[in-house]
């Protein structure tokens, strides 16, 4: 079993910053792809940022403001969120794709952490 737990969400005024963290635990052998997604009420879940080790990608709406990084030794991924806007308000989820110690592929989601940006 693999578990992902997000933390770092909260309420912040527009222009503020938050740093989200996601820790993976369990029978992990490797994590090849980390992703941060978000879902606002009434909207589909969207990919915000991803880190595949050799490359990072960002949604156009967050480029220049958000930074995804990973710590392979700790099996953690982070999302630094600067210059937050009200439209960034959503539940943020981390996602991990990799293999467990039995070489079985997995795709796990965290429980989500609420980010609320007020104007």
**First CA to last CA: what distance?**
40 Å
How do the SSEs run, as a string of H and E? EEEEEEEEEEE
Largest sheet: 7 strands, mixed
Beta strand count: 11
Average pLDDT:
95
Contiguous runs where pLDDT drops below 50 for at least 5 residues: none
Helix content: under 10%
Topology:
Blueprint: E1 2-7, E2 10-13, E3 18-26, E4 28-39, E5 46-51, E6 56-58, E7 66-71, E8 76-81, E9 90-100, E10 105-109, E11 113-118
Parallel strand pairs: 2-11
Antiparallel strand pairs: 1-3, 3-8, 4-5, 4-9, 5-6, 7-8, 9-10, 9-11
Features:
seven-stranded mixed β-sheet, 119 residues, mainly beta, four-stranded antiparallel β-sheet, elongated, 11 strands, single chain
What does this structure look like?
With 119 residues, the protein is mainly β. It has strands spanning 2-7, 10-13, 18-26, 28-39, 46-51, 56-58, 66-71, 76-81, 90-100, 105-109, 113-118. The strands form two sheets. Strands 2, 4, 5, 6, 9, 10 and 11 form a seven-stranded mixed sheet that branches. Strands 1-3-8-7 form a four-stranded antiparallel sheet, with no helix packed on it. The protein is elongated and about 50 Å long. The relative contact order is 0.33.
